[in-house]
Amino acid sequence: MSKKLVAITGASSGIGKALAMLFASKGHPVLLMARRIEILNALPIKEKVTANVDVTNFEQVQTAINNAEAVYGPIDLMINNAGIMPLDNYVDQSLKDKYDTIDVNVKGVINGMDAVLKQMIKNQTGTIVNISSIAGRYTSNAHSIYNGAKSAVNAITEQARKENAHNNIRFILIEPGMVDTNLLNLTSEGEILNSYNKAKKSLNGGLTPEQVADVIAYAYELPQSVNLKEILLTHTKQVV
Ligand code: NDP
């Protein structure tokens, strides 16, 4: 019998892609969601459902989940990973970049939670992993809106966890430091890019996406009665 269904948003790159490969290698069927569906389709995974999903659109998230559950049964692990990080100083950042950051990083997480939570409550089991960031704990230059978005994810996750403890549902908050992915591809301001890349180089790129995926799998594979509620992880040489 195959293992339980795992759903991952933002599975076409970085941490999400590493999660897709890891959970598939462990024998889980996976629902992979992102806008670049051709990348999802090309992943060498047999038991997968892929869906062209923009996480800011609740209908698209819910339809993908319904379609995958019709094949593989209820989702046991929902990983709200999709995110963007266009960096700029507050005064210089466009309203579009500000709104997009909130829409994808906050509304996207809410959409993922809402699409699975009622079913998990009905089944009295399930795990929701929300990918926040070290930026949800500490503010830093050029990160104000991203800081705000990730802080919101922290607060939403914490309170939803409290309200659903009696439903046997685990909410796990993951707060990585620098990870070697494409996350900075929406940032164009030269000085900000330079200083980020300099910091990244000093950490040999930071954590790998595979290392973050391993930590998430560790937390998930603990018994359902053990909730590793919040994990702040960085490259050892990263100071904050
Ligand atoms: P990547 O840029 O490599 O991956 C981001 C993923 O999000 C892509 O698969 C992308 O897919 C998806 N995505 C972006 N916008 C949308 C959208 N509107 N709808 C659906 N999917 C979307 O970055 P990471 O792997 O680094 O990022 C993953 C998560 O980790 C993010 O939440 C990020 O904030 C967080 N994080 C990353 C850190 C880092 O240093 N890299 C540190 C701390 C946290 P597509 O474009 O195909 O839709």
Structure characterization notes:
The protein is α/β, with parallel strands linked by helices and 240 residues long. The protein has a single domain (5-232), classed as Rossmann fold. It contains seven helices and seven strands. Strands 3-2-1-4-5-6-7 form a seven-stranded parallel sheet, sandwiched between helices. Helix 1 links the parallel strand 1 and strand 2 (30-34). Helix 1 (14-25) packs across helix 7, helix 3 runs parallel beside helix 4 (95-123) and helix 4 packs parallel to helix 5. The chain is globular. The mean pLDDT is 97. The site of NADPH dihydro-nicotinamide-adenine-dinucleotide phosphate has 30 residues, from helix 1.
Instruction: Give the structural class.
Output: alpha/beta
Order of helices and strands: EHEHEHEHEHEHHE
The CATH C-level class name: Alpha Beta
CATH 4th-level superfamily: NAD(P)-binding Rossmann-like Domain
Radius of gyration: 17 Å
**Mean pLDDT over all positions:** 97
Strand content: 15-25%
Under CATH, the topology can be stated as: Rossmann fold
In whole angstroms, the N-to-C terminal distance is: 43 Å
Largest sheet: 7 strands, parallel
Total strand segments: 7
Put simply, the count of helices is 7
Order of adjacent strands in the largest pleated sheet: 3-2-1-4-5-6-7
Gross geometry? globular
Keyphrases for this structure?
240 residues; alpha/beta; Rossmann fold; seven-stranded parallel sheet; 7 helices; 16% strand; binds NADPH dihydro-nicotinamide-adenine-dinucleotide phosphate
